[in-house]
Write a structure and sequence with these properties.
137 residues; single chain; 0% strand
Amino acid sequence: MTTTADPTAPRRSRAWITGAVITAVLGLFFAFDAIPKILGVSFAREGTEALGFSPDKTAVIGWVLLACLVVFLIPRTAVLGALGLTAYLGGAVTINLHADKPLAGFVLSGVYVGVLVWIALILRRPELLRVLGLRRD
């Protein structure tokens, strides 16, 4: 039995697909950052401690990141999640700057990832350009 695609179903644009792929990659990236922190894996605790935090804060940082990620991945709350991830990444920029990490490799990496978060979101929801005043229709 062969089936054909529903002609009334909305087609996804290339931009939307690109945004979804970037979102998936970011989701994996953030999950691989959050889960070891939540589980208390030694490298995550040691890395957190090296930045000046007590090791018991590692799980809290992981849970905050995971919560922001989940909210970002839900289409209806994606904008709120992007704001949360942006705030989280701003904290990462600040703490890496405070720890005298290299500017381009460590400090600004949070900015690079944050820009990708917003690119992915705008590709998935182009109407945000109008809301942000970047496009008039």
